[in-house]
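Narrative of accomplishments. A recurring question from our advisory board has been how the design workflow behaves on a single, concrete structure rather than in aggregate. To address it, we present the structure tokens for one chain from the evaluation set, followed by the sequence designed for it. No filtering or post-editing was applied between the two.
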């Protein structure tokens, strides 16, 4: 484990964490540390003090009905939870490898706000809400309003992400697909989340979201519009060209991301059309 000279406050309760956060709004929050430790090693994080949440057991785990996930829920917790939709468990299974899945948390993934964060498109397509808390109170922020720009979130300096709320849409079809260099320990080149409601053979609700193709995870509104009001049409995938603004970086090229985004959406829709 890397060390830092910064003093660490180890909170055991949410109340303690929020009270300490209120008086130390510039402290760095530590959950599983799997992102933060990398930043420490790179020198891009130089905390003056650290708020360690790991001991706040009330922030850990998933409600029995699978609707409420504590911010400290790990990917392993998600993989093992029988009430969660299969696509969400599939998503958790693709994060890092077992070591990262045992330690990394959904809260860390969400607040780290990397456009390549694997879970982010899934919170968008499930219309999840994020519960943010401070000593001032609690507010619910929809996932669609949380990521404001590259690694920029709606979290105020004195707030913590405490829970994620899912609002299940019975009968809807949820999909997850990650494209990386290899099956484990790979940061996404493209990540896709999708949800379709099909009534009487007609798509009546569509959510399509992508990661790694813009400064934030994004909804593919043009694809969604092209899907509505008719049977599932794989050709709607082409509309993604109007939704994304990928860049060349060390992991991939913009051209690859454009092509692959359309391909993974088309493959998903072809599967749905044939189902
Ligand atoms: C080898 C390796 C492989 C990885 N593979 C993947 C991958 O495949 N897919 C992927 O998406 N990610 C991957 N990651 C990144 C990382 O593991 C995940 O993003 C993980 O979910 C982060 O959670 P954490 O608890 O470790 O976050 P931490 O490192 O503890 O925190 C991350 C950030 O979030 C803030 N934070 C954490 N929790 C809260 C909270 N409750 N309230 C407010 N702020 C908070 C912290 O201050 C920090 O800025 C990988 C990392 C490593 C080292």
């Amino acid at each position: 484990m890397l060390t830092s000279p910064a003093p660490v406050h180890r909170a055991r309760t949410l109340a303690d964490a929020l009270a300490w956060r209120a008086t130390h709004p510039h402290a760095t929050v530590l959950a599983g540390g799997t992102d933060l430790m990398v930043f420490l090693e790179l020198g891009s994080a130089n905390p003056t003090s650290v708020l360690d949440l790991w001991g706040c057991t009330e922030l850990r785990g998933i409600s029995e009905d699978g609707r409420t996930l504590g911010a400290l829920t790990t990917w392993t917790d998600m993989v093992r939870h029988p009430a969660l939709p299969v696509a969400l468990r599939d998503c958790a299974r693709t994060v890092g490898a077992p070591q990262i899945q045992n330690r990394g948390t959904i809260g860390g993934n969400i607040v780290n706000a990397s456009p390549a964060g694997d879970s982010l498109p899934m919170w968008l397509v499930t219309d999840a809400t994020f519960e943010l808390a401070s000593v001032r109170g609690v507010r619910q922020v929809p996932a669609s309003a949380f990521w404001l720009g590259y690694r920029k979130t709606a979290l105020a300096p004195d707030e913590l992400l405490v829970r994620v709320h899912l609002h299940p849409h019975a009968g809807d079809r949820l999909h997850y697909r990650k494209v990386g260099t290899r099956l484990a320990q790979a940061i996404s080149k493209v990540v896709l989340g999708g949800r379709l409601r099909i009534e009487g053979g007609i798509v009546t609700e569509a959510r399509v979201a992508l990661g790694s193709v813009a400064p934030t995870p994004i909804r593919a509104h043009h694809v969604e519009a092209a899907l509505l009001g008719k049977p599932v049409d794989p050709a709607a995938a082409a509309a993604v060209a109007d939704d994304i603004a990928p860049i060349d970086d060390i992991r991939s090229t913009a051209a690859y991301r454009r092509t692959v985004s359309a391909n993974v959406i088309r493959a998903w829709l072809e599967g749905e059309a044939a189902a």
